[in-house]
């Protein structure tokens, strides 16, 4: 399915925003991110082997791929994976890789949230919660917060939800559906968020009381860019509507000098090469931002990309919620064939019930010497010259696999291909959105 970009000057949210009180982002923000597999993460599983970790990465990536595509096509209920499969993958409310901390309410309650680019909604489990997954700590209790408010069913905020219902006391409730028809329901709420000791009022979020995802601990979800009304970046009236992130492989060395970070507002790093972004509508108010894929190179060869291979407008998205990268199946098949052609390692036979699409007999050190490089370029001047650690991994001893998979939906650039680069988004001008890449900024971010 292809999605057309919105025409210039078209706002994805067309209701009168001047009627809505938005908080002000008066401070630059540098937010530390923790990878879910870091020993510092509350989701860290010390018993997991390397092979199990890679299996979970793959399954979690596929689960998010299927969820995101189903959202685009409004067919969530038709997804086939069982809840147990999602739980086994560490799916927790539709995947995610990087955690951030903040507090909600007065007095403040600590919340751990999963960063979601290009997510369109912020929600957390709340008291009362008769049907919830296990919590990592005390839940936010709206009845104990002096700064909390709710919304009537006729409010602009309520009417802007993709799906909502109404309580008898005229209180707006949101309804979110994830893969396999798994819901999160609750009250649309406004309260104070505190990030790095800076307080923001009038922050909208879902206060969930029905979140029966799995038996694994749940975290909140922080949608960053997917809605003018509900995602974090667009909740600040003074802007600038800019952010950047550096995803580091810091789970291997959590005590090192580098860490993954999210930069909001004037702290965003908008440097390096750039590419224009199209703003692509999904449903009532949801959106994602898409560059135009211009080229793919495998080893010495630049592939001949056609519209059938790439998918046209709004056909690619950068995401924080899947480690793997997904190309539309015709393009993936072409890339895989060229990796085989230019690789000088024997291809590993496919194993029963194994998720990996292309593997080779050899260690990662073998891959460094004998498997080809990969480059991806976009309209403008932006290009990704990927290191082999972003393309291949030794998923179990003596077997190295391509960190990519096919999709029938849109192309998705996962976190491994974004690592060790500062990636910045400039979303200030409705006619002029930009994506920035800077290889030199990550070490000092």
From TrEMBL:
GO terms for cellular component: extracellular region. One of its GO terms (molecular function) is peptidase activity. GO terms for biological process: proteolysis. SUPFAM superfamilies: Acid proteases (SSF50630). Residues 1-28 form the signal peptide. Transmembrane segments: none annotated. It comes from the Eukaryota. Keywords: Hydrolase, Protease, Signal. Pfam families: TAXi_C, TAXi_N. Residues 98-438 form the Peptidase A1 domain. PANTHER family: ASPARTIC PROTEINASE CDR1-LIKE, OS07G0603500 PROTEIN-RELATED. Belongs to the peptidase A1 family. This is Aspartic proteinase CDR1-like.
């Amino acid at each position: 399915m292809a999605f057309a970009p919105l025409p210039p000057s078209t706002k994805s949210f067309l209701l009168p925003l001047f009627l809505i009180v938005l908080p002000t982002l008066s401070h630059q923000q540098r937010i530390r991110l923790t990878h879910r597999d870091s020993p510092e993460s509350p989701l860290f599983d010390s018993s997991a082997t390397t092979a199990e970790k890679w299996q979970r990465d793959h399954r979690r990536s596929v689960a998010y791929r299927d969820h995101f595509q189903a959202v685009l096509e409004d067919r969530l209920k038709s997804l086939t994976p069982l809840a147990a499969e999602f739980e086994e993958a560490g799916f927790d409310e539709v995947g995610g890789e990087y955690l951030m901390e903040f507090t909600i309410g007065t007095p403040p309650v600590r919340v751990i949230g999963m960063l979601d680019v290009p997510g369109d909604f912020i929600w957390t489990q709340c008291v009362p919660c008769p049907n919830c997954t296990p919590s990592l700590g005390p839940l936010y209790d709206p009845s104990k917060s002096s700064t909390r408010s709710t919304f009537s069913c006729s409010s602009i905020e309520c009417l802007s939800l993709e799906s909502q219902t109404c309580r008898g006391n005229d209180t707006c409730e949101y309804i979110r559906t994830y893969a396999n028809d798994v819901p999160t329901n609750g009250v649309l709420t406004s309260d104070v968020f505190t990030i790095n000791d800076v307080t923001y009022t009038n922050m909208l979020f879902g206060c969930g009381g029905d979140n029966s995802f799995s038996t694994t601990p749940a975290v909140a979800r922080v949608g960053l860019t997917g809605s003018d009304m509900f995602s974090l970046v667009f909740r600040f009236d003074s802007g600038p509507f800019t952010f950047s992130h550096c995803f580091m492989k810091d789970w291997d060395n959590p005590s090192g000098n580098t860490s993954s970070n999210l930069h909001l507002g004037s702290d965003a790093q908008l440097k390096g090469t750039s590419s224009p972004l199209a703003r692509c509508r999904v449903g009532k108010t949801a959106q994602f931002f898409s560059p135009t894929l211009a080229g793919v190179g495998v080893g010495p060869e630049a592939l001949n990309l056609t519209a059938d291979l790439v998918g046209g407008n709004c056909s690619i998205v950068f995401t924080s919620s899947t480690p793997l990268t997904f190309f539309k199946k015709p393009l993936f098949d072409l890339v895989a064939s060229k990796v085989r052609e230019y690789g000088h390692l024997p291809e590993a036979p496919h194993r029963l019930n194994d998720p990996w699409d292309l593997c080779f007999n050899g260690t990662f050190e073998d891959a460094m010497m004998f498997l080809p490089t990969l480059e991806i370029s976009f309209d403008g001047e932006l290009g990704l010259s990927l290191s082999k650690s972003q393309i291949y991994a030794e998923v179990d001893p003596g077997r190295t696999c391509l960190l990519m998979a096919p999709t029938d939906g849109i192309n998705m650039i996962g976190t491994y291909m974004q690592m060790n680069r500062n990636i910045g988004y400039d979303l200030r001008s409705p006619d002029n959105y930009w994506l920035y890449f800077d290889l030199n900024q990550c070490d000092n971010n």
